[in-house]
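the four lines:
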Amino acid sequence: MKTTPKLRLRPTGLTIGFISERTGLAPSAIRYYEEEGIVHPHRTDTGQRRFERADIRRLSFVMISQSLGFSIAEIRTALDSLPANRTPTKADWQAISESFRQKLDDRISQMTKLREQLDGCIGCGCLSLSNCKLYNPDDRARTRGTGPRYLMGDSPSDLGQDA
Amino acid sequence: MKTTPKLRLRPTGLTIGFISERTGLAPSAIRYYEEEGIVHPHRTDTGQRRFERADIRRLSFVMISQSLGFSIAEIRTALDSLPANRTPTKADWQAISESFRQKLDDRISQMTKLREQLDGCIGCGCLSLSNCKLYNPDDRARTRGTGPRYLMGDSPSDLGQDA
DNA sequence: CTAATTCCTCAAGTTAACTTCACTACAAGA
DNA sequence: TCTTGTAGTGAAGTTAACTTGAGGAATTAG
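prediction for all of em together
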């Protein structure tokens, strides 16, 4: 507490290098996140970025969320719910956490459902699309009106025997 | 059973257009899958692709697997375990299914674990990387020896108060 | 036999999430 | 002050999984 440990932490704010060390993110990634609106560092009069301590938390949240499978867009949306005028409190973060937890629950149960049908559906004949529960009903069902599609092969009455 | 319903199904094999209709995949996607070694149609003397009925099943498997989050590379690897000399049997498919089911189980339990720690870790101070269980320990832990990283912000004794 | 389809190939474009590069500009310290 | 070391910018490259487009050949319908 004499003069200062490293200027990079001092009056103006935290440098990108410091943030990079603390989060493990490459400076290029951090700049990218700024472009994506995930962090909003201010600039010195000479144009260098200066971050706040709270940005470390933001960026850590990004890393964690990504490892949970969320996209940058989703993460930005979540972060946008944090207050802009004051440093987010524990309660602010918990609200985000709760929302993500909900989404995760949904994904997990969705995956679980699909997994449970995997055996039966792949193992069996699984002839018609409309019967195949594994075929995601939302994604691409009835994309065209070309007639019935048969997932997993062989329609019942197409050509008698297999080719 | 007179002359033929559609030439595209007849002697030489199934055309890409037919496969496209049946699976819902764009021809461009099917060609891409060929490049990626997921299907191996033979060619007519004039160079057109001819598929087998079993390819519909292969491609359906690809679609299902993708919706479960598997990459083309993983899917190709799985499909490579199918016999090349004969049409895969139900048992062949079940073996693949079993292996994918296992991987899914792993992913689900991993996600579940992370989700359970989400609340606590984001909500709390979660100061040091080494204490933060949410921070994927395999991915990027100790990338540099630059000293301890602090996830989710503020290290205990860095600068007294918040910036 | 024509005309309309369908198919082929190859190159380039697309989105996400970044990295790498080339150059320039500031900042920190001996 | 002079020299590193960091920063900054903008453009282009990277991987995955495809799509789009250009230009040409086969097939199928009438």
